[in-house]
Amino acid sequence: MPDHDPRLMHRSLLDRPLEVSSASGSYLTLASGRRILDGCAGAAVAAIGHGNAEVQAAVVAQMSRVSYVHTMAYTTDSAERLADALLRDRPHGLSKAYLVGSGSEAMDSALKLARQFHVENGQPERKHFVARQQAYHGNTIGAMSVSSNLARKVPYNGALLLDNVSFVDAAYGYRGQWEGETEDEYAARLVAQLQDEFRRVGPDTVAAFIAETVGGATAGCITPPRGYLEGVRRVCDEHGVLLILDEIMCGSGRTGTYFAFEQDGDVRPDLVTLGKGLGGGYAPIAGVLAHQRVVETLRKGTASFNHGHTYQAHPVSCAAALAVLQIIEREGLVAECARKGAWLESELRRVFGSEKHVGDIRGRGLFWGVEFVADRASKEPFPLEKLFGIRVQERALELGLAVYPGRGTADGVKGDHVLVSPPLNISDEDLQTVVTVLKQAYDQAVKGLSWVDGKCPEKQYWWHEPCGTLNGGLYGSHHARPQRKH
């Protein structure tokens, strides 16, 4: 092993990521001195931007008092206050917060909580979970089992993943809605499909239905059609199935309301997962918010949740998240997100709406996806070897803008998109720069399409065999980087 080979195990063993030496506001500064406008807030994480002195002070103050306790025996003021702030007035019936260290942990916790609910409710036969295609819920075994990000699952199929999971169609209007079908008709068809799936597997065996309220990075900010989630709620109620909404990426104010589902009518989820923007990147934290009806069932039974983590409700992470939440509330950043999001939607549609290789623009608030296609009329994705979304992301980075690329958008294998999800407090000027630079990057990527079909691109990517042939293992990633030249 050469001496310069890093001891830190990065996501790639062949390519070293860019080193960030400092970060402030909406900008990252690289070790080279270059400044990067963080147009995706990392992975929709840095909700209030980077380097906030108030959050830093809250973390230092908490560490000066107590930095760790074991929650089997102890609690802390920061954890209690964060839960109180999240669940003030029991929004939508949500009454308890279970705080953990990552979104994957939150989803695993939600699955276990759903299972325990049914066991304590006298229905231990409820072991099956239904989820949606083109969705991602985390990297731990449980969370990955209910995900359908093909690239991330393939190595573990048949070896580690759960087999008590089935999938229904994504709420993906651009590709799923039939020609001539209204939005209401599309929503009704999706709800009927869920009803049929419950009946197929036996509705009395289903523990929960899991869905991202607004799709994340796998399909690029797909939004539910009007009435869909209300219909899902009715079908779940009919069969005694819990509804788990994953808002790890789209929640915490990202879509212009604190909970993304607030824009979808009378939904009342049983469990909601939060993460990413919850702590704003200042400390690892995520959580599950449980409806009162779930809590009361456990209270009448064992009066405990049979689950735990060493670092759950970590006092320093909770102090950071509480400070982030207080800043969001004090500065009205959720309303600002809605205002800026309306402008961003209008500007993205104005700039990209008629572009030859832009198929769809979708999202809410400051959470937008731009899907690229080879042909607008047929919606045909680019061939895999074109790497179009990656090329847009690379060109943007060269121009000083970070956006979040995705592959497999259309069907898990083909398709390209980028996400735009800047800090909620990004300035209007910087938001304009995001769109302007993204258009420049797109234009450069389009020019790069001139290399002939069948010829290898200059760089090889880690999910490809030579000359762009899809690797049989499909070991893909949301944002892969070039690995080596031929």
UniProtKB/TrEMBL annotation:
GO terms for molecular function: pyridoxal phosphate binding; transaminase activity. Keywords: Pyridoxal phosphate, Transferase. It holds the Pfam family Aminotran_3. SUPFAM superfamilies: PLP-dependent transferases. CDD domains: OAT_like. It comes from the Eukaryota. Its cofactor is pyridoxal 5'-phosphate. One of its GO terms (cellular component) is cytosol. Belongs to the class-III pyridoxal-phosphate-dependent aminotransferase family. This is Pyridoxal phosphate-dependent transferase.
